[in-house]
Amino acid sequence: MSKQANKTAIGVFVVGAVVLAVVAIIVFGSGKFFVKTDFYVVYLPGSVKGLRIGAPVMFRGVKIGEVTQLRLYSVEKNMSIEIPVIFSVDPASVHSIGSMVEAVFDDKKEEIDAMIKKGLRARMEMQSFVTGQRMINLDFFPNTPVRLMGEKGIDLGDDVIEIPTIKTIEQEIGKTLEDIPIGEVADSLQNSMKGIERFVTSEEQFMDEMIKMGLRA
After folding, report:
1. Per residue in 119-138, pLDDT tens?
2. Those residues with Cβ within 8 angstroms of residue 35's Cβ, 6 or more apart along the chain or in another chain
3. Distance in angstroms (rounded) separating the CA atoms of residues 156 and 115
4. Closest CA to 73 of 85, 65, 81
5. Would you say the pTM of this structure is higher than 0.85?
6. Which of 63, 59, 176, 65 is nearest to 121 (CA)?
7. What is the distance between the alpha carbons of residues 146 and 143, in angstroms, rounded to a whole number?
8. Which residues of 163-202 are buried (b: 16+ CB within 10 A; e: fewer)?
9. Does residue 146 sit in helix, strand or coil?
10. Whole-angstrom Cα distance, residue 179 to residue 194?
11. Bridge partner residues of 38 (DSSP)
């Protein structure tokens, strides 16, 4: 009888421990353990310095997800290095964004493709100027090129959808500065300075001649 009682007590203890563990996950994890999450990948151009795992993914100032993985991937054909950034998104947080196309497309990939055609792009932006930390910002940028790695990218499975990227603000400013013909601007400025110098010199010579002729104030 004592052995049977011990087995019963142990069984009750184990079941109780499992129940407590499940309750703890629900309470302390705010139920996230059971929430369906969508995963996406972006191939950001240039360096991803300042971007960390756990960095927020924003849409017009609203957090909709976070970065889950950062990888290095070598493309053998052109000897380039790509950095796939994988992030998770809570479908409930973007329900209203995709509601316009949800009625037309049942497949998630088709829905995202429709939003990409409308200009959906990802861009790395500054999260904090003090710490230098970065974040991923999603927004609609119509009339921008669709930059997708496609088959060249790392195979992450059918459940991970790629979103095209655009350059950071710093990269766009840098490209603008590169396009400025510095040499021509310098030559033009130098010619302008010489013209001003000639004008000032001629004015001084004119006044000297007038003074010699007796000009007085």
Report:
1. 999 999 998 888 889 999 99
2. 90, 92
3. 21
4. 81
5. no
6. 59
7. 9
8. bbbbbbeebeeeeeeeeeeeeeeeeeeeeeeeeeeeeeee
9. coil
10. 26
11. 89
Q: What is the pLDDT of residues 172-214, one digit of tens each?
A: 675 555 555 666 666 677 777 776 777 667 766 667 766 666 6
**Rounded-to-integer distance, Cα 43 and Cα 84, Å:** 5
Instruction: Write the single-letter amino acid at 193.
Output: M
End-to-end CA distance of the chain: 130
What is the rounded distance in angstroms from the CA atom of residue 196 to the CA atom of residue 163? 54
* d(C-alpha 126, C-alpha 97), whole Å: 23
**Radius of gyration of the chain from its Cα atoms, rounded to whole angstroms:** 32
Q: How many CA atoms lie within 13 A of 60 on its CB side?
A: 7
